[in-house]
Design a protein that fits this description.
Layout lengths: L18 H16 L10 E6 L5 H12 L3 E5 L13 H11 L2 E6 L4 H8 L4 E6 L5 H15 L6 E5 L6 H10 L5 E5 L8 H9 L3 E5 L2 H4 L5 E4 L10 H7 L18 E3 L20 H6 L1 H12 L5
Parallel strand pairs: 1-2, 1-3, 3-4, 5-6, 5-8, 6-7, 8-9
Helix pairs in contact: 1-5, 1-11, 2-11, 3-4, 5-6, 5-11
The chain binds phosphoric acid mono(formamide)ester.
Length: 308
């Protein structure tokens, strides 16, 4: 593996990360999960700028920083900041870089994280920008698959739900293309995976298949990645009402799947996974959320140059 340097780097899109980069971060996450390092980030400050709601991402970044001895500042919604008075994102970032060592940003606007990275001299981590990308969620998803399946190579994965607006699906599909994954995109035609992502995957010679019927493909899957229908992204609320209950995954699906299928979901779920599934070992989504700590510890430690 070529020498990899993360110190000072931004983490904006999965497209910026090579296969070696991805495996490197996962390796550091494993190391940090196995050996607690309470002083690794002592004296460092993370600024979390969340202009959109979040539970897992914001709190796991905060917990990751604190468990490594670092500190955090920030806000959980934009309307308590001076952006409310008309200050630009560019100027906001210019200020916050003076108060911190790393910035984590979530924003509804595609490209907001990239813009912030251009404004800031310190590392910027994209915690989700609109329908575009959520790269640290992808690293968590890869880490979870690697732990559950032993390897990322050649897995068969089904993406189910809102593939049009779901940024976690867009990021994860891009990443798994490095590992020769077979991909099944399962969605109603109106919520299908955007063509520009499918074209990009085809150029990388990914074997892909599209359907709206989970029962037609579930028997092939090692992993089923379920997503919620993203109400906040729909321009028309009537369209959302049409699709909000289109899929519900429960224990009965396991009758048709491989015995050890992992059912993942970035969460929050809003009805598309029956809680009756939670008791089955196939339900990977809470393990996945827990993996947010070591993976985000790895990303923070790497961009801050605290680990190599
Ligand atoms: N998975 C995820 O991004 O969850 P939150 O929106 O709660 O951060």
């Amino acid at each position: 593996m070529a020498s990899i340097t993360f110190k000072g780097r931004d983490v904006i899109s999965v497209r910026d990360l090579s296969k070696d980069d991805l495996l490197y971060v996962l390796g550091i996450a494993k190391r940090l999960e196995q050996k607690h390092q309470p002083n690794l980030l002592r004296g460092r400050i993370m600024a979390s700028m969340f202009f959109e709601p979040s539970t897992r991402t914001r709190l796991s970044f905060t917990a990751a920083m604190k468990r490594l001895g670092g500190d955090t500042i920030g806000f959980a919604k934009g309307d308590v900041t001076s952006t409310k008075k008309g200050e630009t994102l560019w100027d906001t970032v210019k200020m916050i870089q003076e108060y911190s060592d790393v910035i984590v940003i979530r924003h509804s606007m595609e490209g907001a994280a990239r813009l912030s990275a251009e404004a800031a001299a310190i590392p910027v981590i994209n915690a989700g920008d609109g329908t575009n990308q959520h790269p640290t969620q992808t690293l968590i998803d890869l880490y979870t698959i690697q732990k559950d399946k032993g390897s990322l190579n050649g897995i068969s994965i089904g993406f189910l739900g809102d593939l049009k607006y779901g940024r976690t699906v867009h990021s994860l599909a891009m990443a798994l293309a490095h590992f020769k994954a077979k991909m099944y995109f399962i969605a109603p035609p109106a919520l299908k995976m955007p063509d520009y992502y499918l074209d990009e995957l085809e150029q990388q010679k990914v074997m892909l298949h599209e359907t709206d019927d989970i029962l037609k493909v579930v028997k092939h899957l090692d992993v089923l990645y379920v997503t919620r229908i993203q109400q906040e992204r729909f321009p028309d609320p009537i369209e959302y009402e049409k699709y909000k209950n289109v899929y519900k995954v429960g224990p009965e699906l396991l009758k048709y799947s491989k015995k050890d299928i992992s059912i993942m979901h970035p969460l929050p779920r809003v009805g598309e996974i029956d809680p009756a599934l939670d008791a089955f070992p196939n339900a990977a989504y809470f393990r996945q959320a827990a993996n947010g700590i070591p993976v985000r510890q790895a990303v923070l430690s790497l961009v801050l140059g605290a680990v190599k």
